[in-house]
Amino acid sequence: MLHGRPQARGRLAARALLDHAHREIAVIAGPGTAADNVDRIAGFMDELAGAGIATGDIWISERDFSSAEGRAAAMELVASGRPFTALFCANDEMALGALSYFHEAGIRVPQDVSVIGYDDAPAAAYSAPRLTSVHIPWREMTKNGIAELLNLCYGFNRPVTRTFPVSVSLRASVAKVAKRRRSQP
């Protein structure tokens, strides 16, 4: 089990943006049929609401977790003319697609717009710029799941950890608003 519920992990993403003075935030969410996505978005919105941001006014687009859909949503966001200083994507694949579109459109990350993803997939550390992401410790979770399976199936007595810390891997895709141009991308 990860420390905190999915809502708490969504709160981490919002807090990372709020701590960098972002108040005009857009969201690319995953499918509404994915319970963990619904929880992470709810936590994200709850943290923003707690900071006095009117969450009903936030631009949000529901997508399928793919890079192509992240790119398409970023294109729609820019075309909408809605002002935003930051974008939260419900997974890193969508965030990488958004980064790609912003680069092609001449929108600088993080100078014009900050971007944060979720999962901390290996590609996040190698994107340009390097993607800030909510870190889910997949490797440790997988190793411990396999150990538990071996214990159950073969009577082994391997140690198993069931609680894993979650954090934000703060990288180059997020910057403080005060250090950036405040104009619409």
Characterization of the model:
With about 180 residues, this protein is α/β, with parallel strands linked by helices. It is built from 5 helices and 6 strands. The protein has helices at about 5-20, 35-50, 65-80, 90-105, 140-155; strands at about 25-30, 60, 85-90, 115-120, 130-135, 165-170. Strands 2-1-3-4-5-6 form a 6-stranded mixed beta sheet, with helices on both faces. Helix 2 links the parallel strand 1 and strand 2 (about 60). The longest helix is centred in the C-terminal third of the chain and has 17 residues, at about 140-155. The radius of gyration is 17 Å and the shape is elongated.
Task: Briefly summarize what is shown.
The protein is α/β, with parallel strands linked by helices. It has helices at residues 6-18, 35-50, 67-80, 92-104, 138-154, and strands spanning 25-29, 60-62, 86-89, 114-119, 132-135, 167-169.
